[in-house]
Amino acid sequence: MSKTTPFNMPISPSVSTKIGSTMTPLQDPLLNYSLSSSLLRPTSSKSMSIRENVHVMVRCRPRSAEEAAQNEEACWVLRPEEGAIDLIGPNRKMFQFDSVLSGINNEEVYSEGVHNLVRNCICLWPDCKWKDIYNGNKAQPGVIPRAVSDVFNYIREDHHGREYLLRVSYLEIYNERIRDLLGEDPNANQPEIHEDSKRGVYVKGLNETIVTTPEQVMQIIKKGEGSRKVSATEYNKRSSRSHTMFQLVIESKSKDAYPVDRAAVQVSQLNLIDLAGSEKVTKDFERQKEGGYINKSLLTLGTVISKLTSGQTTTHIPFRDSKLTRILQTALSGNARISIICTVNPTRSSKEESLSTLRFAERAKLVKTAAKMTKITEHSELQNCLKKIEELQTKMQEKTE
């Protein structure tokens, strides 16, 4: 994590959250919640806020080859023009969200649920004029590569005359233990969750890398994926055994703002979170242990969402009951813009799992957020770097003279 205090600015798909599924997001996500948010915290100066509900999108994936071969019956009807999805049958149930999609078109998913939030995490808000699903593949890039590309495209197109500094970190929560996926040995140290009045809730001790190109970011992500905990289960050949959070911190300032050490710096965070799916009973002891931790953290997330939308202001919110909800506390408490993408299975045999997913999404839609935008005036990484450059330039000039 950065030593700076990020200013509150709206952001986006910061959490590719996968819940209630036994599928890996790198393959065919079932019941995949892609929670996007920006954990932005106030620091100094006046701030403004955007009040809104969590944006929720539902995607109904196509039947798998195995499901098609077994001629599994579909049980959902999608009405995209109304943002509705209906359960077919005597116990008909309708759910309504911001948008409903079918198929595997990641471009459509990104455009509908993620694009605006990514742009908002770095544009000069509120004066900005810009109006597989996680990683995907070459033909269908997923949320991460599209979001990263979008950020760098905006910077290249920026005509406001600003200087930028971007840095990334990547962690996973495995068996309720935080592992730094960018460390030389993720098991060597254990980053801890901290909280203070300025930074809010953050993870201390993570490696951060300054990045300058989309290709560099994707290489770092590839490195992190290589350290992630995955294994074969009774349901998948390659299943996620942990939750992960990829964070991109974006700092920027006007090129005309001097002196550097007192220039106002905008800081926002784009957090992309991939949650392991809920686990069914298995005979393998190690998988049972992992599944127990996964299910507990997802249950806690569901409980937190329920209590946040209960309407009772005195209700205790159990953020501390899992590391996942503790890390997400700032975003879920409202200081962020959040987008959730839920993927459901079309078949009747998975009806209960899909219903569970949709009920979660329905509750999440009720969560209200009020992302604040605040500027910081000291101790940002961008200020530190520019100040060092100034000092080096002065020394070179003195040496030349």
UniProtKB/TrEMBL annotation:
GO terms for biological process: microtubule-based movement. One of its GO terms (cellular component) is microtubule. GO terms for molecular function: ATP binding; microtubule binding; microtubule motor activity. Keywords: ATP-binding, Coiled coil, Microtubule, Motor protein, Nucleotide-binding. InterPro entries: Kinesin-like_fam, Kinesin_motor_CS, Kinesin_motor_dom, Kinesin_motor_dom_sf, P-loop_NTPase. The lineage of its organism: Eukaryota, Fungi, Fungi incertae sedis, Mucoromycota, Mucoromycotina. This is Kinesin-like protein. It comes from the Eukaryota. Pfam families: Kinesin. Transmembrane segments: none annotated. Residues 53-367 form the Kinesin motor domain.
